[in-house]
Amino acid sequence: MSTEENPAAAPRSLAEALRGRDDVSLAALLRSRPDLITPVPTDLTQLATRAGTRASVVRALERLDRFTLQTAQALAIASDPATYAELLGLMAGDDGDPAVSAALPHALGTLRAQALVWGGDDRLRLVRTARELLAPSPQHPSPTGLGPTVREAGAGISPGRVQEILATAGLPSTHDSVSALNALAGLFDDPERMSALLDQAPSESVEVLERLVWGPPYGQVTADPAPRLRWLLDRGLLLPTAPGTVVLPREVALRLRAGRAHRTTEPVPPPVEAAAAHRPQMVDATAAGQAYTALATVEELLKDWHEGGPAVLRAGGLSVRDLKRTAVALDVPEPVAAFWVELAYAAGLLASDGEADERYAATPAYDEWREEPAGERWARLATAWLAATRTPGLVGERDAKDRTLSALGPGLDRSAAPEVRHRVLALLAGLPEGAAPDAGSLLARLRWERPPRADRTGGGAPSPYARRTPAPPAEGTRGVAARAGGSGAPGYPADGASGAGGEDDLRSRLARWTLAEAEMLGVTGRGALSSHGRALIGAPPAPRRADTRTEPRGPGDKLPVHHRQTPLPPALSPAEQATAAAAAARLLDPLLPEPLDHVLLQADLTAVAPGPLERPLADVLGVLADVESKGGATVYRFTPASVRRALDAGQSAADLHAFLAAHSRTPVPQPLAYLIDDVARRHGHLRVGAASSYVRCDDDAVLNEILADKRAAGLGLRRLAPTVLAARTDPAALLEGLRAMGFAPAAESAEGDVLIARADAYRTPPRTPPEPVPDGPPVPDDTLLAAAIRAVRAGDLASTAPRRPVAGAADTAPGELPRTTAAETLAGLQAAVLTNDTLWIGYVNAEGGASQRVIAPIRVEGGFVTAYDHTADEVRTYPLHRITGVAELAE
Q1: Strand 218-220 with 245-247, pairing
Q2: pTM across the whole model
Q3: The CA-based dihedral angle spanning residues 190, 194, 196, 197, taken in that order and rounded to the nearest 10 degrees
Q4: Percent of the chain with pLDDT over 90
Q5: Omega within 30 of 0 (cis) for the link into 574
Q6: Under DSSP, is residue 20 helix (H, G, I), strand (E, B) or coil?
Q7: pLDDT tens, 575-603?
Q8: N or C, where is the chain less crowded by C-beta within 10 Å?
Q9: C-alpha pair distances (Å), 376 with each of 285, 380, 614, 644
Q10: DSSP 464-526
Q11: How far apart are CA 84 and CA 675, in angstroms?
Q12: CA 531 to chain centre
């Protein structure tokens, strides 16, 4: 049993409480609060000091669930130290609440495990920093809605006025103000005497108390208070805190609340309710269809950027115009296009090329990705999405400096995104098989697990009872009220809500975006978690649902869900995530459609692909024809420009005829054959090279036609020979100009050979995917934890072990290094070698860092001492000139 759980041990400080813990308990503390181990503390005293720093305590409070946080808030307004019975009374009230009584030991155990509370059940102490953060004050009202105690509120009242209050309340006078305030507090704490006092109160005075009882406890009065207020002021039920301001003392409020610190306690997390249920097979089929669409969309996006995509803005990212063009090309709204662009970037398939004229393009990893099986390609995208901290839902909003956030640009990282995504999917995994969640209950559960900042410290939002009373006097409270609220986006894409919302608003929006993005990516189908989505997060098999209906009965009808839901899966390590992704890919592969090796050619110069095509067929057809429509079947249209594009890529007319005949289940229509032959007959008839550029043609009549055309005026053409024209423009512009005039020129090299243009020639240099922005220090692994605990234990032994100075050593104050002369240090070490004694030494390393160590010297020679270092648990060698002094350990 740990020290703080054993009242007999009676630790006097947090360091002593930690000293009484076993290694398993210390490891749990360091795992839950990894900031305490960065860097590794030298001893348990330093660990306790670090655990009480404001930054560390705030971080720990942010990760408490609502009931555990309410427990800490109750301890902040309880006596210091408090008993378990007092804490239970504050949480469950005078009448008691069985659910609170059952849940309180676990919540208190969590606070103890995280070193926020220490001491036995008879002396519970909240860490001082946590008390300062959670205790009520005029500047930072507590979420409990309570005010200061009688002693705190009455500290500024004159002694004469205090005695007048005592007399009016029916109490005997005392000799000083301190005892008078204690007597008044005793009156308010006594249920019988307090009831008798309130029975005498006018009804108007009782109404005032009812308005203040649940907070805020402050009110404003005039210089001449009304009779109902005067009655309360004369008996100390309201105490003045400043001119024109009064407060309801904490003892009075608690008595009026029947002992409860909170108006509503939530010992049990709200269940996630199912809004609809579907057959699991339908969910998996729908999710598989979305997964296939996701793969096709990412591939279409990067294929569109084969020759170099949009330019990179000077500040980084994609311009609004380029995002619109991308959305039109993908036939999706702009926020959805931003999601696909960011997903490809997170998966390492897209990056900037790093050139002077920087542009976005596919990376070499894209070519490897295209060759992988479909299930593995999807798993790679889904894994990147789960771990990414970049948040595409923020695209188009403004940052703190009023700059627009752009896709692929800076400022989109939100460290909470991976955690929220995993929690949302984990909660979906806890629902019965095929059940889609009710979004409201899902958000309520997330808010219980990670309460908003206002519920943590009371300083981030107004009290929930602010409308019940006059405006509170503290200016800070009014300022917070003006900032309260925020527009959470109801779905994906974002609804244009300002990015100025706080962290809590962002977490709700992240949850909504997760639901929408999971549906687009195929992790969920019809809102329910699919089997491959369940495998992706390492969730156990889904529970069977008791209700077999496939839809709710009517609007607003929710399907029942058992209160005891399936345990939620924990976050996965990188190795576990790779294994889970492989399992998800194996489950998804059989659900994806098999690629086809044929199309259906039609007489209107179109081809219909009734499903996904094999990659070689899709690549050639993508060059030979333009995509006209997508969906369950893809329609391609053949045009002179598309046929010329295939000829430019090195195909001949015979090759195209053979390709279509081999891959069409219908005969090649005559109009398509004529189109190919007609374009091929004219293709390459003109040749363009570099003079600045030139045009040559064996038929001088064609060159005469070009010169006579007014559209050629901008090309700067002139005749060099009967079959050659020179131009002032570059070859690319000349090719484009002649094609716009209806000709089909071909580019040629300096040797006169036809140049073949391939659309997929451009790639960025090798790029690594963007690293997620960590949400604080990483959780240490078991090896690091074991080494850190061993070092902390040894350092604590060195700092706390009783010692006696060697002869001639100066007295050493606690915490200081031992100081002895060089001769005394050498003599002490040599004697320890002969007697096998253990010594306490001070040591200064080469960087000037001082430390104290417990060593067992083995030998002393050549200016060095070789010893077993208990602090490091290994044999080390130390230069004698860096040892400040030695001291023997006491028996």
Answers
A1: antiparallel
A2: 0.77
A3: 140
A4: 33
A5: no
A6: coil
A7: 888 899 999 999 999 998 888 888 899 88
A8: C
A9: 18, 6, 17, 36
A10: TTGGGSSPPS-HHHHHHHHH------SSSS-----TT--HHHHHHHHHHHHHHHHHHHTSEET
A11: 89
A12: 24
